[in-house]
Amino acid sequence: VADAQIFSSVAGGRLPGWQVGNGGVNAWGVENLVGLIIDADFSPAEVVVTCVLEGDFYRGLTRAPSMPLWTEKPHFALQDLLMHSIWKANILRYGSASDAVGLNETHRDMIVDRAARRLKELDLYLKEQKVKHFLFILPTRTQIVDGELPDPRVEQILKQYEIEADYLLPKLLSSEPDGKNRGEWFHDEVHLELSGHHEYGTLIGEILFNALSAN
C-alpha cells in the first residue's frame, strides 16, 4: 500500500486547506505515541489525530530491540529472513508482550490503566498548547466481520478518566451492511487492504472536516 493510499492520506484529501502528516510507527503502543509528543516535544501541528486499536492499550512501552528488522532497511533478502527467524524463535521461547499478561487480569488492568492515564496526560497537554485533539478507536476484523464487541476494559477505563474517544466500529458497520464486503477491507486481523484504507480514511476525513469546519 503506497503512502498516498493509506487512510491518513485519504482523510487528508478530504480536508482542503490542511497539510496532513502521518506519524505512525509499526508496533507502537499508546505510551510510545504519548512519549513522542510530550517527552520528545514533537508537536508541530495545530491538530493531533490519535488512531489506536484497543490492543494498543496492552502493549506498554514498545522498544525497537524487541521487534523484527523494522527499524532499518535490510541490505539483502537473506538478512531480513534471518532476523525474522530469530524474532520468531524469541516469540516461541518467551512469548509476546500480550501473551505475558494474558493470564493475569490484575496485570492487564494495570497496563491498560497506565495507558489511559498517559492518554489523559496527552489530552491535557495538547489543550494547554491550544492544539485540537481527536482520538479514534479503530476496530479489528473480528469486530467488523464477526460481531465481536468492543473491549469492556478499555471502554470502562476511558470513561473513568473522562477521555473522549470516537469508536469507528458502529459507523463502519453502517457504511457497509454486507459482512463479506467488510471482510475484504482487511489483510489480517488489524492491517487493511486498499479498500479498507479507503473506507477508514473517508470516514475519518468526514468526521474531521465537519468538526474543523464548525470551529
Explain this structure.
With 215 residues, this protein is mostly helical. It is 51% helix and 7% strand. The chain is built from ten helices and three strands; from the N terminus they run H-H-E-H-H-H-E-H-H-E-H-H-H. The protein has a three-stranded parallel beta sheet. Helix 5 packs across helix 7. The protein starts with 6 loop residues before the first helix and ends with a helix. The model has no long low-confidence stretch (mean pLDDT 89).
Shape: globular
Strand order of the largest sheet: 1-2-3
Could you give the distance between the termini?
33 Å
The number of helical elements comes to: 10
Helical residue percent?
A: 40-55%
Q: Approximately what portion of the residues adopt beta-strand conformation?
A: 5-15%
Name the assembly state: single chain
**What is the SS-derived class?**
mainly alpha
Q: How many extended strands?
A: 3
What order do the helices and strands follow? Answer: HHEHHHEHHEHHH
Features:
215 residues, mainly alpha, 7% strand
Brief digest:
The chain is mostly helical. It has helices spanning about 5-10, 30-40, 75-95, 95-100, 105-130, 140-145, 150-160, 170-175, 180-185, 195-215, and strands at about 45-55, 130-140, 165.
Chain-wise SSE layout:
Blueprint: H1 7-12, H2 30-39, E1 47-53, H3 77-94, H4 97-100, H5 105-128, E2 132-138, H6 141-146, H7 152-160, E3 166-167, H8 169-175, H9 179-183, H10 194-214
Parallel strand pairs: 1-2, 2-3
Helix pairs in contact: 2-5, 5-7
